[in-house]
Amino acid sequence: MAWTNSEMADEVILFFKPFSSVNLGIGMPTAVAERIPENLQIMIHSENGVLGVSGRPTKQSVSPTLINAGKETIAVKKGASYFDSALSFGMIRGGHIDYCVLGAMEVDVSRNLANWMVPGKKVTGMGGAMDLVNGSKQVIIMMNHFSKEGEAKLLSHCQLPFTGLNVVDLVVTELGVFKPNGNIFEVLKLAPNTTKEDLKMSINILN
Amino acid sequence: MNPNNPKVFKDAKDALYDFQSGKTLMSGGFGLCGIAENCIDAISEMNVNNLTVISNNIGNSGRGLVKILVQDKIKKAYCSYVGGNPDLEVRMLNKKIEVELVPQGTFSERIRAAGMGIRAFYTPTGFGTLIAEGKEVKNFDRPCIMETALSADFAIIKAQKGDKFGNLWFKETARNFSPLMAMAAKITIVEVEELVEIGDIDPHEIHLPGIFVQRIFQGKNYKNEIEFLLLEKE
Fold first, then answer.
1. A-chain residues within 8 Å CB-CB of B84?
2. Nearest CA in chain B to A112
3. Does B184 reside within a domain?
4. What is the CATH number of the domain that holds A96?
5. Candidate list A11, A47, A106, A174, residue with the active-site label
6. In this prediction, does ipTM exceed 0.85?
7. Tens of pLDDT, residue by residue, chain B (234 residues)
8. Using CA atoms, how far apart are residues B144 and B140, in angstroms rounded to an integer?
């Protein structure tokens, strides 16, 4: 049985050390923010200029100038800080962010990531992803296991334009947790009642 | 212009009096957060074209700089993200506009570099990707690409509070690219929700010293739109 988004978020959170800093990408990774236990004392960074995101505001406290990188309204916790984009990306590029959690279109065994464009079809832009994957201490990908066409998104070689080379540490999908090691994806964990056949991944890229 | 204080202007139109076709324009804000609403409206009413615009999103959700974009006044845009901006994406794919997509950290650092007098820098961001094409590669602890400073003729930015020397205070995450753009443009035009007297902002509280600001005016009719309103579940 596949994990829900919340259960996937919980799998991601298992890798977080207490008192660490985390940047969460747009889309699926935002589910992580809602699941982090308070006692872990995680500082959530959003690249538009805030460290210490805490969740959602109330009707009374909501502010149009307090948003995350997904342009959603947020609240902040005690100890939070605001800063400009250069300082924000200094935190990222300078290696001060412990973990980033990003969505992806494709990941390959060589730890390469593609998540910003489909040539001739779809361009979202890379936003902060190219900086995040090169600067964060650990890069965790949280994504659906299959594309809309039903193909596994864990590949031997990315087909789409790269976001970063040799950057991905872990991949969490609804079916399991995987570690690309340069040759294959190591299966660290499978969702309940999931078999390796359910992954529909070529046997030579799976251990 | 005010003869007693050459930095203080009446409104956006007054402050943009010499803005012309073909100019390079930086525009602060992340999505719709912290955008120079009055200046964008004023430019949408001006007869200018062939603009080069440097802004993280070039508007969003049909608003902000999208007003100028759909008038086809923009020839070239530098930005990091076009998701949530279908008006831009369609113009990109139809080649109606030239877009240079820049990774957001490189984007902010290129702007900061221009303001700081740094001509270029090396970063691992983008190495081995399409954006590295044609750029010098140099190996430090790992391979890096050279990125050059990004400057502009004009910057339009919005601050919550500013004094008549141009010292600025930004609210929450509305700061984003604005202080960097203020430093990188020849003429920085600032609109504020509260224009106060010199000395009214505590020097400790100043986010951007007024030396980087050439023109300032009291803005009006702010919408401060929220793109995605999400509230705590009750």
1. 71
2. B128
3. yes
4. 3.40.1080.10
5. A47
6. yes
7. 577 899 999 999 999 999 999 999 999 999 999 999 999 999 999 999 999 999 999 988 779 999 999 999 999 999 999 888 989 988 988 889 999 999 999 999 999 999 999 999 999 999 999 999 999 999 999 999 999 999 999 999 999 999 999 999 999 999 999 999 999 999 999 999 999 999 999 999 999 999 999 999 999 999 999 999 999 986
8. 7
